Amino acid sequence: MNIKQIIFPRPNCAELVEKEIELTAPNEVLVRTEVSTISPGTERANIIGDANVAGRNAPDTTFPRSSGYNSAGVVVAVGEAVTSVAPGDRVVVYWGKHRDYNLVPEEQVVKMPDGISFEEGALSFIATFPLAAIRKCRLEIGEPAMVMGLGLLGQLAIRLLRAAGAYPVIGVDPVASRREEAVQGGADYVFDPFAEGFAAEVKRVTGGGAKVCIEVTGVGAGMDGALDCMAKFGRMALLGCTRDKEFNIDYYRKVHCPGITLIGAHTLARPKVESHPGYFTHRDDINAVLQLQLGGRLDFKPMLTEKYAPAECAAVYERIINDRSFPTVAQFDWKK
To answer: What tens digit of pLDDT does each residue of 109-147 get?
Structure first.
């Protein structure tokens, strides 16, 4: 069958193209996409050809390439070995692509409960990235927690920290609109990291510094500034830091002496099969996010502000490359 997919044929260029796929493997599931979510930071790195986008793998700057890893839709066909879903089921697809139909192994689909919209479901996998970081920090109820960087992952982290019982929850970003969005999402305090006395203010409102920090800026200066805000024996998850290795940290004074724990929090640094305290599988974390939404502990609906037709992808990605005010949550509507 022919499908439509967004690809990056060369740097700084996005196109909607057609390609052929076929359901052949017994463990495969074919899903008709309703909504796919854009991850601006990762997808910007992909389309510009950032050599560090491959993370711990060998740098890959080859084109064409594709992107998009969280979508939701309806199962239309399954292989003979598939048992967890059936045609007609509403599902989350993770590690899929921006396509009108995703063909993935059974392990990459999670059935959605009634009451969760496709738009909300298409945020559930991305939400597991900060959720895993929070788990690794072993947050205790009532501990002060800070999120450094309030893009998509940072906004999700604010909501998850509040649901997890952190207090106060602090959001940090130089962009005023993002700080306001964090307040709407449950942040108790927000700060501009370039404001005079920023670190002192964080320590004042926390009574000595953040015990937990989710660092999501992806820049060394963000990590450095966050370390100035940490309490003794604090734990910092490096969720977005950093694709650029050319930066310096005074590790002796900012990490070694105060006993700070730095935690690698890439979403692939998790078990594939069996969850255990602090380390959940993708599937278990997706289910946790879905249940928290269903139970009213998480509310992603106010975040769902922008939708685009896939045919608009060239203009959308041009904005992602050049416009730092691109919406926090933007999705492709594959019904358009």
So the answer is: 999 999 999 999 999 999 999 999 999 999 999 999 999
Give the side-chain half-sphere CA count within 13 A for 210: 33
Element (H, E) at 333: strand 330-333
* pLDDT tens, position by position, 150-200: 999 999 999 999 999 999 999 999 999 999 999 999 999 999 999 999 999
Q: Are 90 and 108 in contact (CB under 8 A)?
A: no
| Cβ-based neighbours of 326, under 8 Å, separated by 6 or more | 40, 319, 320
Distance between first and last Cα of the chain: 20
Cα distance between residue 137 and residue 264, in whole Å? 10
Joined tokens for residue 60: 């890959």
Query: How far apart, in Å, are the Cα atoms of 313 and each of 31, 98, 259, 333?
Result: 21, 10, 46, 11
H helices of 146-219, in order, are 152-164, 176-184, 198-206
Residue the block writes with tokens 């599937």: 283
pTM: 0.94
Angle between the N-to-C axes of helices 152-164 and 40-48, in degrees from 0 to 180, rounded to the nearest 10: 150
